[in-house]
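[[Local backbone shapes]]
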Amino acid sequence: MRILGLRFRNLNSLAGEWQIDFTHPEYESGGIFAIVGPTGSGKTTILDALCLALYGQTPRLGKITKTTNDLMTRHTGECFAEVTFESSEGKFRCHWSQRRAKKRADGELQQSEHEIADARTGRVLENKIKEVLGKVERCTGMNFEQFTRSMLLAQGEFATFLSAKPDERAPILEQITGTGIYTAISERVHDRTAREKMQLDTLQREGGTVQLLSDEEQKELDRVREERVQGATFIAGRKTKLERAISWLKQRGQLEEELAGLERTRRDIDRRREENRPELALLKKARVAREFEPDYALLQAKILAQEDLAGKTGRDRIAYGECDQAFRRLRDQIGERERRIQEHPADATLRENFGAIEQLVSAYQKTGQRLSSCEAGHRNASDHVAAARKACAGREEQREDLARDQAETKTVAQKLQQELAGILGDTEPSALYERKIDLTAEIERLTALTATILRSESLHQEQEDRKRSYQELSAEKTERQRALDQRLREIALNERVIRELDERRKNLLTIRDLAQERERLAAGEPCPLCGSRDHPYVDAHLPRIEETDEEREAYLRRLKTLRNEEAGIVRRITQIDGETAQNLLEEEKNRRESAANELLIATGTANLWIATDSEDRKRRIELSVTELTEELKGCDDVLAKVAELRKILANNAERARQLRSGLDIVQEEIHRAKLAIAGGEAEVNNLAAEIENLGRDLGEYLTTIWERLEPYGYRKPEPGTIEAILKDLEERRETYLRNEREREDLAATGQEYSAKLKSLADQIAGQKEALTRTNEEIIRAKNALRERILLAGFSGCAEFFASRIGRERFAALEALEEDLRTEEIRLASLISGREDALGRLRAEQLTDRSLTTLEEELAVCLQDHEAAQKEILEIRLKIDRHGAQMQAQKDLLERIRKQQAEYERWARLNALIGSHDGKKFRLFAQGITFDILLSHANQHLRRLNDRYLLLRTENNQLEMSVVDLHQAGEIRSTKNLSGGESFIVSLALALGLSDMASSNVRVDSLFLDEGFGTLDNESLEVALDALISLQRDGKLIGIISHVPALKERIATQLVVEKRHGGLSTLAGPGCTTKS
């Protein structure tokens, strides 16, 4: 995967739209470039834009959502990031954007948008957020975590793996390489094996509980069922005839009772009509009176209107008097304002002149302040010039001392290099150390070979012992399994007997309960159920339940004993299975170890001549160890001397670097001091000229102010009183303007009062005329209503008013009258219908017996029918249960066979890789992964610095150590590394992790966001050489740093410069912007 271009807008301090073309010739030719700029200028923002365009998140902030977006530049309403990249899948353009509502800076954040398109055709491939992320992972071959480990090594994440504890490295390896799946596989294999075993045990237990009928029992059940079906059919016919006769008698009696009830209801309605006769008469008069309601309501409305008009006239008279008094007071206030305005006629000009006077005073004050500031600045500038001249002289002496020390360190370094070359000759230290490691490993291998030979001999005897133990356990398991089958059959038999006893006890209880009811019957008295006076079953024999209970308890005790024995046998079988599995596992382990030992012995002694027995092998091994130890001692002596010389060289190089740094600093300080002297002298001259000009301007401002104040009574006031005079003039202007406004407002209010008085006078005159007309209309309406009431039959107004009732009472009386009439009609209809129905029933004459006799016969018939149906149902259930159990047993045996095969398959896999916590398979996979990582890292470390080599600690699965080749192969902990050493090792590990994370993807672009400030000049040169060497593999390397030496070494640079307001700009090859 290779990044071709990046475009973004309004991200952090980089406001506006920016575009970087990574196909520019300078990137293609150099292969490495630096992103430089001061701290906080926005260098990392470029990498944030790259991550945002691809995955919608950044290493520093995580996912950008609708609620939070700390990347968008402040005071802007939108932002976006777009990247163009190429991979084996093709060429693509990925775009992410988010805006605020209406693109306003204070608008609410909207949902972000994300899409990926074919860069060649422009066709959008996906535009939904989840689908886009999936498409990006398929096109790049990496998810976000793998991308930040392989292409973009983000700030703060560079040394994560080196500084992590061994327990913390495991999840990092799993996350990067995907080896976490081995933990899940191990756990799931273990869980699946347990589930398969549990399922097999359950099926085997079910197989012992199935009960089947014999052929004779089946034939007997079929015969009995046919007999019971014929009897039930006969009883059903008899039951139907009895039910019809009983229904006929009940319907006839019900109709006779209903007719008697309807007659009683009719008499009640006649009584209610007589009781409500006065109310019904009132209802009749009220209907007549309601015809005059509209005329009466119109008369009442006119009377109310007359009263309202009279009240309004009185209120208007009072308002007229109050308004007249307020108008008189207003004229007095207007005169008072006119007098105040005439007292100060000159204040009228302040409206136009005050602003100009105020500006003059302000300019006068600012000029005075500037004059004081310039005088103080002139004094300070003179002092600074003198101090700078003194400091410059001191730094010149310091520069001469540093130059002498630098020449001495150079001479020492040349002598040490000559001595080191004389010791090493043409041999590299790394070759010596590798030879030392090979010799040590060979000595350890040969030493361990003797123990391996002895271990191989003992393993054969252990295998024979385990074979005998396995045979004994197999025989015991067979015997236990036979006993378990016998117990399961006995348990099933006991459970069947107990169910039969429970059913028998239930039937006996029913019989006994009925017997208790029969004991309450007395001779000659009717039965409460059937009414019979003859009780032939009172003295019948009662069954004994105690014998059934004792027999049932005996079977329950036996069942409990059998279940306990079953549980003990199952536990022993489980224990035998566990021991057998452990023996098989140990046997397999020993077999593998034995084979491995035989192979190790064969390969280990192949180069030691052919030995006939163990003693001969051990003697030849001891001879080889002695020769290798002498050669190892020689390597150690040479490496120790080389390490000592290199340590002295490193100290001398550090001293030279400090001297160079100090000389550069002193030279820079001398340069700055000279610039300060020149600048200070120029500033002193400029301030002196400005002081003279300001004094002249101050006098001119004061003369003009005196001329402007004279018309208002101030003649050449002191400069110190000008502030108070200006405040007094402002108060005079405000007083004049306030009096003028109040006079105008009062005049406008007077016009309103005058108009209101005229309006009130007109209203009062009109109201008098309206009152006269209303009185005349009321008199005429009263006379006309009285005449109509008399003609309608009322004796007078008193009787009319008595007949006027409320709406609710009128509606209640009408409802009463309608209810009586409706009920009478309904009763007549019901009585006629019931009489017709009763006549039809009497004509049928289905029986002449009593209802009690028929119900007794029906009760006996129902009991017989229910008993027959119950017996038929029980027989049918037994037959169906037998068929189902036969099929279930057949299916169960097949399921047990399949489950046994499935369990054995998972048990074999569990013995190899399964464990409850996933540790067995996880540790194996992590160890291999860690070795691969160290192999990749050592390849990069040899390019960076041939002094170090990474090794895995022998007693810790994920712990590593650093071998110092310049210190006679000293093995050091990674915790003891200096800052520069940690950076080099971290860089090698990061590049190794990048190789692993992108093992299926070719990574042609690499971005490093990490400080190089911890490296000395030599280490920095080595690191840069190693990074530049990656360009030979076709990679484009981007580095973020502000180290000066790095800026000088890398010619191709993207420069981020700070501007005012917290913003920055971007410049460099292929970099363009849009406003």
Remarks:
- Residues 300-343+722-791 form one domain.
- The chain has 22 helices and 18 strands.
- Residues 537-542, 602-612 have pLDDT under 50 and may be disordered.
- The CA atoms of residues 202 and 896 lie 9 Å apart.
